[in-house]
Amino acid sequence: MISNELQKELITQLNKEYHSAYIYLGMSAYCSKEGFNGAANWFLIQYQEEVAHGMKLFKYLEDQDVEIQLPSIESVEVEYKSLLDVFKKSLAHEQKMTKNLNILSDLAMKDKDHATYNLLQWYVTEQVEEEATVKAIIDHIKLVGDNGYGLYTIDKELSGRTFTDPTAN
Ligand code: FEO
Q1: What angle do CA 57, 60, 63 make, to 5 degrees?
Q2: 2: part of which helix (H) or strand (E)?
Q3: Residues within 6 Å of ligand 1 by CB
Q4: Hey, what domains does the chain have and what are their CATH numbers?
Q5: CA–CA distance from 87 to each of 66, 94, 166 (Å)?
Q6: What's the pLDDT tens digit per position in 67-84?
Q7: N or C end: fewer C-beta atoms under 10 angstroms in the chain?
Q8: Model pTM?
Q9: 36 pLDDT band (50/70/90 cuts)?
Q10: Distance 47 CA to ligand 1 centre (A)
Q11: Is 131 part of any known ligand binding site?
Q12: Maximal CA-CA distance, the chain
């Protein structure tokens, strides 16, 4: 049985996963508007990943007989300064998510709720990969600076990203 406090926090986390999806949809829209179609594709896949994160948590809450609440999803930014800016904001967002997941893990540990703690560790591990991927893209963009051909090449690389369900394993 998940404690009431933890149930409330997990539902907030569920909302945050869908909010993350929405943020990435906005980032995809920005990139598409600016002609970075590869980056638009990359963020669209990021959107799909966040939906999968949300679904994993949703299913867990259902399995644990938690009464599901679905609060409204906060509106998101769709304007950014540059390709670098949009990826930097993406990293800052993921770092915030990691912090939240650590707080949730602490709470599950305090409650001796091993099942929820285990679930949260899946998310914590996923965050490490997400942050590392975005950091590598940021480094790459910084390297080329304002060079049009460099940005074109990065955008082309980002167009190759395809969706693999992160929750499938
Ligand atoms: Fe589901 Fe990128 O955090």
Answers
A1: 155
A2: none
A3: 17, 20, 50, 53, 94, 97, 130
A4: 4-160 (1.20.1260.10)
A5: 35, 11, 20
A6: 998 999 999 999 999 999
A7: C
A8: 0.96
A9: very high
A10: 9
A11: no
A12: 56
